[in-house]
Amino acid sequence: MMVKTKTGEMSKALIMFSGGQDSATCLAWALNRFDYVETLGFNYDQRHSIEMTCRQTVLENMRAVFPRWADKLGADHLVDLSALGAISETSLTRDVEIILSEGGLPNTFVPGRNLIFLNFAAALGYRRGLTTLIGGMCEADFSGYPDCRIETLNAQMNAISLGMDRPFKLETPLMHLSKAQAWALAHELGGQTLTDLILEDTHSCYMGERDTRHAWGYGCGSCPACELRAKGWHEYNSEGL
Ligand code: ZN
């Protein structure tokens, strides 16, 4: 369903798009709902530039196989946040093993990462006239990242709207969905074609492994991101969602 503003203007949004399963599903959701969508990726010295390559492939293939969406897909922006990588001692940005730290957070957690992403997204959105932001944050995520929680995000969006003196809004279509339900949403939005695109082109694995193709996509099969993706895929198939 298309969203029209009160004045009948085009509805526009800026989506934080990493090239992973969640943000690809959000991108399809956005293209189904808005008239015009721009994409934003952050480069912060992830160990694997594979994610940056995958996001380009997803964008290209999304344009190629969904002509109805291609017309709505606007500029893609890439913001260099290497300073974030430099101050974060985590397994995504340092060559250390992924472990659960005290409090149960995996050390893949970059402190405050989503808060920083939101500020940059809003600053870009301000310049581009895009005050609706979209993100793949998910409370059901195994990791319990505190910056993915709805209370955190609401507080942050309130601060952004006040600080930029413009009413910004954040849409998080996956917030209360399980990984299995996220696969179901993708299928609902783009059928088997989209499911296949997400399986083949998106990247989740923390180890950057893309040599082995499983039923659920590429990955090492044993890091937390692969385990989560595999579990969601198996649940989606067995539950007949
Ligand atoms: Zn993996």
Core attributes:
five-stranded parallel beta sheet, two-stranded antiparallel sheet, Rossmann fold, 7 strands, 241 residues, single chain
Description:
- By secondary structure, the protein is of the alpha/beta class.
- It has one domain: Rossmann fold (3-Layer(aba) Sandwich), CATH 3.40.50.
- Helices cover 45% and strands 13% of the residues.
- A 5-stranded parallel β-sheet has the order 3-2-1-4-5, sandwiched between helices. Strands 6-7 form a two-stranded antiparallel ribbon.
- Helix 2 (50-65) packs across helix 7 (179-201).
- The protein starts with 11 loop residues before the first strand and ends with a helix.
- The relative contact order is 0.15.
- The model has no long low-confidence stretch (mean pLDDT 87).
CATH class: Alpha Beta
Strand order within the widest beta sheet: 3-2-1-4-5
User: How much β-strand is present in the residues?
Assistant: 5-15%
Question: What's the CATH topology label?
Answer: Rossmann fold
> How far is it from the N-terminal to the C-terminal residue, by CA?
21 Å
Unreliable parts: none
Short description:
The protein is α/β, with parallel strands linked by helices. Helix content is 45%, strand content 13%. The chain is built from eight helices and seven strands; from the N terminus they run βαβααβααβαβαββα.
Annotate the secondary structure layout:
Elements: E1 12-16, H1 21-33, E2 36-43, H2 50-65, H3 67-70, E3 73-80, H4 82-87, H5 113-128, E4 132-134, H6 150-164, E5 169-171, H7 179-201, E6 213-214, E7 217-218, H8 224-239
Parallel strand pairs: 1-2, 1-4, 2-3, 4-5
Antiparallel strand pairs: 6-7
Helix pairs in contact: 1-7, 2-7, 5-6, 7-8
